[in-house]
């Protein structure tokens, strides 16, 4: 008898999409979620998906309030067009900063699996 492999895909309900955020050389807290498709804000997101705009010409760092443009305080580096899901935390735990220039960032707050 052949072994069976079971896979599970988790699909998140995208609730609150923020328009392009312009990053600067100052660490800035993520925006407060607004009412999305269902008319209610995601106050405690299950997941936060971020994507750097593909037209960016410089990188963005995501991290704690101490995140620095030179990367000395750690953080997640987002190159132009790249994306990632951030670990589950309060949105106010994350800050963004531009390595240089004024790159753009999309932030999607996800309510949870559907």
CA radius of gyration: 16 Å
Strand content: 35-45%
Count of DSSP H/I helices: 0
Distance between the termini: 34 Å
Looking at CATH, which topology would you report? Jelly Rolls
Question: How would you describe what is shown here?
Answer:
The protein is mainly beta and 114 residues long. It has one domain (12-32, 42-113): Jelly Rolls (Sandwich). It is 0% helix and 39% strand. The chain contains no helices and eight strands. A four-stranded antiparallel beta sheet has the order 1-8-3-6, with no helix packed on it. The radius of gyration is 16 Å and the shape is globular. The termini are far apart.
Describe the secondary-structure layout.
Layout lengths: L11 E11 L5 E2 L17 E6 L7 E4 L12 E3 L4 E4 L8 E4 L5 E10 L1
Antiparallel strand pairs: 1-8, 2-7, 3-6, 3-8, 4-5, 4-7
Give a brief outline of the structure:
0% of the residues lie in helices and 39% in strands. It has strands at residues 12-22, 28-29, 47-52, 60-63, 76-78, 83-86, 95-98, 104-113. Strands 1-8-3-6 form a four-stranded antiparallel beta sheet, with no helix packed on it.
Index terms:
114 residues, mainly beta, Jelly Rolls, four-stranded antiparallel β-sheet, 0% helix
